[in-house]
Amino acid sequence: MRKIKILVVLILAGLIGLVGYAYLGNMDPNRTETRTQLQLGANDGTSEPASE
Q1: CA 27 to CA 46: how far, in whole Å?
Q2: I need a surface site. Which of 18, 27, 32, 42 has the fewest CB within 10 A?
Q3: Cα Rg of the chain, angstroms
Q4: pTM for the full model?
Q5: How far is Cα 40 from Cα 6, in angstroms, rounded to an integer?
Q6: Are 37 and 50 in contact, with CB atoms under 8 Å apart?
Q7: For 3-52, what is the HEC assignment?
Q8: Nearest C-alpha neighbor of 38 from the set 17, 52, 26
Q9: Ramachandran region of residue 30, left (φ > 0), alpha (ψ -120 to 50) or beta?
């Protein structure tokens, strides 16, 4: 019974810590612009190189 109480206390402490980190931590995404070339029709053998 004592081990179960310790396990419950540890789980609760972990959940409280996770909620605190979610609210107080820096969890903003880093946004960057990404451009990649897309080659259409690559599987049929009739595609030409992409031009800009």
Answers
A1: 45
A2: 32
A3: 26
A4: 0.46
A5: 59
A6: yes
A7: HHHHHHHHHHHHHHHHHHHHHHCCCCCCCCCCCCCCCCCCCCCCCCCCCC
A8: 52
A9: beta
Q: Map tokens 């800009």 to a residue.
A: 52
Q: pLDDT higher for 47 or 23?
A: 23
Per the CB < 8 A criterion, the answer to whether 38 and 50 are in contact is yes
Token digits of residue 46: 């009739």
Single-letter residue type at 32:
T
What's the CA gap between 20 and 17, in Å, rounded?
Answer: 5
Q: How does pLDDT run across 3-41, given as a tens digit for each residue?
A: 999 999 999 999 999 998 888 877 677 889 999 988 887
